Amino acid sequence: DHLVDNIAITVRRFLNADGEAIPAGPNGEIYDGASETHYVANSTLTAAKLKEVIVNVIEKGHGSNVKVAISTTDETAVRNLTGFVAYIDPRHTHNANTNEGVPRLDVTRVDNRAIGTFEGAEVWVKPWAIANYA
Q1: Measuring CA to CA, how many Å separate 48 from each of 15, 22, 44, 130?
Q2: What is the mean pLDDT of residues 79-95?
Q3: Taking the CA atoms of the chain, what radius of gyration do you get in angstroms?
Q4: In whole angstroms, what is the distance from residue 27 CA to residue 9 CA?
Q5: From CA 5, how far away is CA 61, in angstroms rounded?
Q6: Using 50, 70 and 90 to split pLDDT, how confident is the model at 5?
Q7: Which of 34, 58, 67, 99 is the most buried (most CB within 10 A)?
Q8: What residues does each domain of the chain span?
Q9: What count of Cα atoms within 13 Å lies in the side-chain half-sphere of residue 64?
Q10: 3-state SS of the chain: helix, strand, coil percent to 5?
């Protein structure tokens, strides 16, 4: 990824209800290794399922700076989800009388940019993301 070079990224496997012991959560939550799973599947992208994916990451203590990577083919579907808040395209004129922060949409890289937030997680379109998979 051209935005983050030369850093170590820890890759963790998904929990899959295989009976493996699971460490307690950051707030002392206890998980059952025989039933806890992080595999989320659905025939279509829904706000509930994307939220479930985000919660699966946060509940295990990885709640700071959560990012969701999506394919360019899924951008329209994600933008249409209830709860998605789009970043503002700086090429448009906006009302200067509002007291709201204005996150800017990066218009320089259509295939590699943050497009907004969903459930507190920043949503990124990435050239390497797999279609229909978040």
Answers
A1: 19, 24, 11, 20
A2: 84
A3: 17
A4: 24
A5: 25
A6: low
A7: 58
A8: 64-125
A9: 1
A10: 15, 15, 70
